[in-house]
Design goal:
CATH architecture of the largest domain: 2-Layer Sandwich
Number of strands: 12
CATH superfamily of the largest domain: Pseudouridine synthase I, catalytic domain, N-terminal subdomain
Helix content: 10-25%
CATH class of the largest domain: Alpha Beta
Length: 227
């Protein structure tokens, strides 16, 4: 069957405000509606229940915000990335901002198979003593293993933690920055990291700052539409 798409665009977008409380499927629907309203010529799958050809690098946990989400869309007609971004932003749902759009090869691998790592910045709703948090961080980093359970299976979280450091926010409050592995079958979950630090995920504000791909180490120079 002949492909019904001629171009693949990659979007870098942020998710903030009220959109932190919508799940991954609802986010996909919000983007689909915005693309349709913006008259972006998105390609659809064949069959009884056609869906837009759209792919995300990684689902964001519910309640988290992000400044570095990535999504690919396949188009039936070619568009300049800058024009595509402008049309999208005219119809985008509140809380979602498309910062960059660029073209990637149609033959490029799926993003889910190309992710390497992801970075989060965690701030605390209720103040926490730096000394206590520092002790927990050092203890976790010094541990040889950190066994957790996910979907009834036990796994070791420790090798999935690439870095974990304390920082000061602009307001002078302590916060956490962490880099977690994001590879197929080897994904470090930020909520489980927080639980390993004896921190309730509901008592923090977690913000994903970046997703790193194999073929785009922190996004090199490229022809792009930027916000």
């Amino acid at each position: 069957m002949q492909a019904n798409y001629v171009q693949r665009l990659r979007l870098k977008f942020s998710k903030s405000g009220p959109t932190r409380y919508i799940g991954h499927l609802d986010l996909a629907r919000a983007l689909e509606r915005a693309l349709n309203r913006a008259h972006i010529p998105v390609s659809y799958t064949q069959g009884y229940n056609p869906r837009p050809r759209m792919q995300f690098a990684s689902a964001l946990p519910l309640g988290f915000t992000s400044g570095g989400e990535l999504a690919d869309i396949w188009l039936e007609e070619t568009m300049e990335p800058a024009q595509a971004r402008e049309q999208m932003m005219e119809r985008m749902a509140p809380g979602i901002v498309v910062h960059e759009v660029w073209e990637v090869p149609l033959s490029a691998p799926a993003m889910q198979a190309s992710t390497l790592e992801t970075e989060y910045l965690v701030t605390f709703i209720d103040p926490i003593e730096r000394e206590i948090l520092q002790e927990r961080v050092e203890s976790l980093l010094a541990a040889e293993t950190c066994m957790r359970e996910r979907r009834g299976k036990t796994y070791d979280l420790r090798p999935l933690i690439l870095s974990l450091t304390l920082e000061d926010s602009e307001e002078g409050e302590v916060c956490l920055r962490t880099r977690l592995m994001l590879k197929p079958g080897k994904t470090g979950r930020p909520d489980e990291l927080l639980e390993a630090l004896a921190v309730d995920p509901l008592t923090v504000r977690a913000h994903r700052t970046a997703i790193v791909l194999e073929d785009e180490a922190r996004i090199p120079e490229r022809r792009t539409g930027r916000g």
